[in-house]
Write a structure and sequence with these properties.
The complex is a heterodimer of chains A (about 475) and B (about 90). Helix content of chain A is about 30%, strand content about 20%. The radius of gyration of chain A is 30 Å and the shape is elongated. In chain A, α8 crosses α12, α9 crosses α12 and α14 crosses α16. Chain A is of the alpha+beta class and about 475 residues long. Helix content of chain B is about 25%, strand content about 20%. Chain B has 2 helices and 4 strands. Chain B has a 3-stranded parallel beta sheet, with helices on both faces. The longest helix of chain B is centred in the middle third of the chain and has 14 residues. In chain B, about 15% of the residues are buried. Classes of the chains: A alpha+beta (about 475), B alpha/beta (about 90). Chains A and B meet through β10, α6, β12 and α8 of A and β1 of B.
């Protein structure tokens, strides 16, 4: 959009700024020259006196200029900013204006003040007003006495916790986190098979408490959830415990401040918590999976609220989960796993990888039921203390997986229904066909590295029915 | 006044009447749909016995997995071949 400003010099000032008052003699000096100067005042018509200042009442001029500081002097050429200097800095002003000896008697430099466009509420209002893309979601007007947080509860939009009210200003700010237009349809989301637009994801991300820079991760997670392989319909509808567990890899982790260390699976980090929550809110509000409706979980689990964490790749003895799944180490990805947990693994005594692998195997046998095999998948979050043993012994992920598969290849006669005095277990005819059964399918066991530096523990995240019969682990690249 | 953006799909719930119930099971074949959950076959077998005793023709169907909706082709096949269907949900 072109500025309603002619080429030449332009200065943005405001009355409520000491440095702007300081430069008034400079403005007068420039105004007295043949080329003149256009003065734009943000906060008061008629300031500075006698310079025919334009009052930027709605701050549209300042917004289009991208003014962050007052005063700022601009040289406009062909309708665009050719050069600029914020605050009072004589050399800079001389460079921009091409006039030497400006402001004799003034100090060499003075910092300026924050532009009124940068005030939080004003910034969001301007962002919405100048967005090239209109938002198309239904506007829900609240009564004057209605509390927006309570209104979200009353309309059934929340997961049981309060949400950040999705005002137009907040959603516009959220949409700054992506280059995608709000109206772009990302996917069709089960169970309602509803079209899910970037705008709907942004609204739910606002409600979850996300910052705009988290939005690309949420968008990728929604895309993964909607994929045929992940089967979000089944994950939502099952009586089982599972919900979407999100594992984030690549440079985006540190860029948005995720926590892969102390208390990695717990509370305290905004990105970890709100990204997982945003996905579940999208599944609820757009996909239509609500507890008691499509969602018939006997117990559910916190992964239906939020279960999202990044891998500690830097401290890991192994290639990352993303690399195992075919992505480059420089790529940012999110992996969705239909799961719940964690189940704790305590081993503070092992000093060899063989011993620790046995501990992991013993606990992994419990996933779903000690006598069920080939059904659920599992991700083991290996802590730094445990990982150190494997690193020092030179054990690769593949070696560890082979070891555990071997330890969990069990006599079929022990696994079938009725064995050990309990009716649960594998179908009895299996024992007639096979001597042994392996707990996990070849692709059903994964390892990631995360957690605090102290503690001889690891954590098992146990999955729902894995693979094509249930939910396939799904990894997608994050566009950021 | 606060204005919020609607986070939902903005769909209204469609309502469809349920199909007319069969007045007499013996008039058509009854489909028995096993959704592949453990022990669903026990329930289905017992229903088969009871219906057969009553002189009702039955046909058996099975979903590939309980974790996903029945494939469209299977649903169409059942609709074409049966006057009623009983689905074993329980495990």
């Amino acid at each position: 959009m072109s500025l309603p400003i002619a080429d030449g010099l332009l200065v943005v000032v405001k009355d409520d700024c000491e440095t702007c008052h300081l430069v008034v003699p400079v403005l007068a000096e420039l105004a007295g020259r043949e080329d003149g100067v256009a003065v734009v005042s943000q906060d008061r018509a008629g300031f500075p006196e006698g310079l025919d200042a334009i009052h930027d009442r709605e701050l549209d001029i300042s917004w289009r200029l991208g003014t962050e500081t007052t005063p700022t002097v601009y040289r406009m050429e062909e309708g665009a900013v050719a050069d600029e200097q914020a605050g009072w800095y004589r050399t800079g002003w001389e460079r921009v204006t091409g006039v030497t000896g400006l402001g004799a008697g003034l100090p060499e430099q003075r910092p300026g003040c924050g532009s009124d466009t940068m005030l939080p509420d004003t910034y969001q209002r301007l962002l919405r007003r100048h967005s090239p893309y209109p938002m198309s979601s239904q506007r829900v007007e609240l009564a004057a006495a209605e509390d927006p947080v309570e209104a979200a509860f009353a309309r059934g939009w929340t997961d049981g916790l309060p949400v950040v009210p999705p005002t137009e200003e907040r959603v516009a700010r959220m949409l700054e986190g992506t280059d995608l237009p709000p109206g772009q349809v990302l996917c069709t989301l089960p169970p309602d098979l509803a079209e899910c637009s970037v705008e709907k994801v942004a609204i739910n991300a606002v409600m979850a408490g996300c910052r705009p820079e988290y939005l690309p991760v949420v968008l990728a997670a929604v895309e993964a959830a909607a994929g045929r392989g992940f089967n979000i319909h089944g994950v939502s509808a099952t009586t089982y415990f599972s919900g979407p567990v999100l594992i984030v890899n690549g440079p985006v982790r540190s860029r948005i401040g995720m926590n892969s260390g102390v208390n990695v699976l717990g509370q305290g980090n905004r990105a970890n918590l709100t990204i997982g929550r945003a996905l579940n809110l999208v599944v609820r509000n757009v996909g239509g999976a609500r507890p008691g409706g499509v969602d018939q979980a006997t117990f559910g689990s916190p992964s239906k609220l939020s279960f999202c964490f990044p891998e500690d790749e830097e401290g890991s003895p192994w290639e990352s989960l993303a690399v195992q799944r075919g992505f480059g180490p420089e790529e940012s990805t999110v992996t969705l796993f239909a799961a719940h947990g964690p189940i704790e693994v305590v081993d503070q005594k092992s000093r060899t990888p063989e011993s620790l692998a046995r501990t992991l195997a013993l606990q992994l046998r419990m996933v779903a039921h000690p006598k069920l095999a080939g059904m659920s998948e599992a991700v083991v979050v290996v802590s730094p203390e445990h990982a150190r043993l494997f690193r020092e012994a030179g054990w690769t992920k593949a070696r560890l997986r082979e070891e555990i598969h071997s330890l969990l290849t069990l006599p079929a006669s022990e696994m079938v229904a009725g064995a050990g005095g309990t009716a649960e277990g594998m179908p009895p005819w299996l024992a007639d066909q096979r001597q042994e059964l392996t707990k996990f399918s070849p692709e059903g066991l994964w390892f990631v590295h995360a957690g605090g530096g102290a503690g001889g523990f690891s954590a098992i995240i146990s999955g729902w029915v894995g693979g094509r019969a249930g939910s396939e682990m799904t990894t997608v690249a994050i566009d950021c | 006044m606060t204005t919020l953006l609607d986070p939902t799909s903005e769909r209204t719930t469609g309502e469809r009447p349920i199909s007319a119930r069969s007045a007499n099971l013996a008039d058509g074949t009854v489909g028995l749909l096993d959704i592949s959950k453990p022990r669903g076959d026990v329930f289905i077998r017992r229903l088969d016995e009871l219906l057969t005793e009553m002189g009702v023709a039955v046909r058996h169907y099975r979903k590939p997995t309980f974790s996903k909706p029945a494939p469209l082709d299977l649903r169409r096949q059942i609709a074409a071949e049966c006057g009623a269907v009983i689905e074993a949900l329980a495990d």
